[in-house]
Amino acid sequence: MRTHVTRRRLFGAGLAAMGAALVAREPAAQPAPAQTFLADAPPPLLLTPPHPAPSPAPSEPGTPTLNRPVFTLKEFRQVVPGPAFPDNAVALTIDDGPHGGWTPQVLRILERYHVPATFCMIGNQILGQEAVARSVVAAGHQVANHTWSHPAGLAQLPPDRVEQEVQRAQEKIHDTTGRTPTIFRSPGGAVSPAVFAAAAKGGMVPVNWDRDPKDWTKPGTQSITNHLLAARPGDILLCHDGGGDRSQTCAALRTVIPALQSRGLQFVALGVQL
């Protein structure tokens, strides 16, 4: 436990320092407006200074509060300290699991091509699938918090409900996998001041995406493939391993991953293992 706390403090301190530096470079920045928005039209990435959590929680206070999610690897590294990503890097994020059937298939594909990924887990989907969740970590992938029950209207919920969704998932993911997520993925990418506050209180950075094949709608393997093949260096890609039949997603990944690698793109995972 001592090692876990120390690493959380180091991570939180690093985020706080980076947040303060960014705020210093943006003297006109104001706190986030009280409105909800999706990933389609992001405003400029701003930070409000770190502040102590209002009540005790199993998280590290001092994480800067963003006014919108991170959409690209460049933005991620502006907020999260660490070595620069390779110029040819892309990140693959996998949402809505773990699932007893689809998650193992995705893991086998990633293993075949030596690809690290970030799995954004729903807390209540871990119930009964604890072994699958642990297998994600055992395979060397990162885990992220995707709320407890994936409410489509998370951004419209009152702050106490938002915090409950975030914190309950955080606890379940940690208790099951031994990892504490440092990334938060909101359902549908929808956010609000309450969502940003809950993520910061949990020691997490909200991360969306900039390459979405909408595979959850099952548009066909070719459609998913075409959207992902349009990836460029610095993109964050979105796919799913839960929430329904993901055979199209798996089929697309079998084509897309080696194709992107043959173009010289390198896959990286987001997050810090705590």
Please characterize this protein's 3D structure.
α6 (159-177) runs parallel beside α7. α7 (193-201) links the parallel β6 (183-184) and β7 (205-206). This protein has helices at 2-25, 73-79, 102-112, 123-126, 130-138, 159-177, 193-201, 221-229, 247-262, and strands at 47-48, 65-66, 89-95, 118-121, 142-145, 183-184, 205-206, 236-240, 266-268. With 274 residues, the chain is of the alpha/beta class. Strands 3, 4, 5, 8 and 9 form a 5-stranded parallel beta sheet that branches. Strands 1-2 form a two-stranded antiparallel ribbon. A two-stranded parallel ribbon has the order 6-7.
Contiguous runs where pLDDT drops below 50 for at least 5 residues: 1-7, 16-43, 45-61
Which outline best applies?
Answer: globular
End-to-end C-alpha gap: 11 Å
How many runs of DSSP E, i.e. beta strands? 9
Oligomer: single chain
Sheet with most strands: 5 strands, parallel
Instruction: Give the helices and strands as they follow along the chain.
Output: HEEHEHEHHEHEHEHEHE
Helix count, DSSP H or I runs of 4 or more residues:
9
Helix content: 25-40%
**Gyration radius, rounded:** 17 Å
- Sheet-strand content, in percent, reads 5-15%
Derived from helix and strand composition plus strand pairing, the structural class reads alpha/beta
Please tell me the overall pLDDT: 84
